[in-house]
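Appendix B, example 12.
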Amino acid sequence: MNMKKLSSVLLLLIISTVSCTNLDEEPFDILPADKYYQDKNSVIAAVVRPYEHGHWCGWDGDRWLISELTADNFVWTQKGKHGYDGGDWVRLHGHTWTPDDGHINGGWVGPYQGIGQCNVIMQDIANLDYTKIGLTQADQAHHIAELRTLRAWFYLFLIDFFREVPIITEPQKIEPQSTPQEVFAYIETELKESLPDLPKNGKIGRWDQGGAAALLVRLYLNAEAWTGTPKYTECAAVAQDIIDGKYGTYALDTDYRGPFRSGINGYRSPENIFEFPHAKNIYEFSWMYNATMHYQARYSLDNDWGSWNGVHLTPSRDENGNLYTYKLGMPYERFKTGDKRKQPFKTTSSEGDYEGFFLVGTQYEFNKAQGYGFDSSKVVLGTEEYNGKPLAYVDQVARFSEKPGGRWSEGSHVITGEENSGVRLLKFPWLPMSEGLFQFNSATEIRLAEIYYALAECKYRASDKTAAAQLLDDVRERNFEPAAWPANSYEMNIANLTDDEFVMELGREFLGERHRRTDLVRWGRFGNEWWDKPQDSKDRSVFPIPNRALNSNPLLKPNGFE
């Protein structure tokens, strides 16, 4: 099948997801591209097709897993007979992966699939006469800039994960890998050249000037870790421009929940620079729920899903209830007692209001009579170790059901979990299905808080701790009641803002947002110890190029990591 035919197949995938299927219809896999692009709608369908893959790439599986489960805040524990999965999660947590691991391969394949889609569609639309289908040359430049930006976003995964990767800009082209410096320069050029042709504050879920500039901030912030050359001055300049409104109008949300409830009942957070919009049965945040929630969570959160009972926060306490002393990990206990985010999650109205980011403690059934909250008379019961007994999430990992015999004596490890092990993150809220709210919240990819924190880090590294504290506090103040704020402000307690504290604060603010591995690498802490993981004996800050990739491209060479 030639690439024009392939592009038509990709475009038809969009149509098939939003219309009924007629198996008797004429097959269109042989429709040439110049026959498909007949009007504005067909062009727009082409442009948005790679966004669907982008959502999957960022928020549905391997890329999230190797960004978060290789770091200190999350783990997928084996829970009794469930969840060993060939040792996948043990290897990710313990930094013992190999070039044959499927999740590492997914970190390579996912972005390149998106890059391939962008290349095909860009080639198609670059050859179109837009004026013949009611569009302008400015529209054409905009669409190409949008796809170049999306392609650059895919390349950010690759430079972050593997450093030395092929730069592929044409369909079906096989290339050798480029150096990290070359990949960095390519991404930088793509973003800078695309910026002028993008709109400010564009459509939800589409790249615009603010989004492209924010990707430059990510690129520059990590330049030293990725290429050996620091770019903090450049990072600070672009971050300040975004905050000042050069690339569009954005504002920090006054509510700590705002960025993550965007999309609910028509609300759009002014903080979100780029988000993947969702709608039930069309575009869903499904993987995150399945991976993190218990099988019985449907009763407490009001939906009909089963879930896998996999991912949870790494424990803060040992099997005897003592607080660990690691400098990393222990995410739940890193939140101060007065932090609004640390509240147990519960809905507070039938309109989608809620509080808290975590499921912890005894779980109760959803209160169907009032349409929100929990019914304290109905306890959710376990199905495995606690079959018929109350299900209560604990900030610990051990075989408590076998105490004092059985495997209790093995201690606290990735393989010694139970069905109730670990605090569950509900930062991305799961709202009641019976109220028509389930799966309508967006996946927040980039928000203004990230730009504030990036600028704060640049200031901090330049020894301007006061400016850094002010920027961090601009975001953080919403997390505390006024009476509790003076004790928690960095600006009012400047001595508290140390390197270790900055790393902990990054973990709190961006918990679960696919930042953690990148942040730890940038701060030189990825190889350090945390729960059930000793200090690395060798550099694991870069993933090995997967063997499957090496076998499929004779021009590739191993990147020196195992």
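The first helix runs from residue 3 to 18. The first strand starts at residue 74 and ends at 76.
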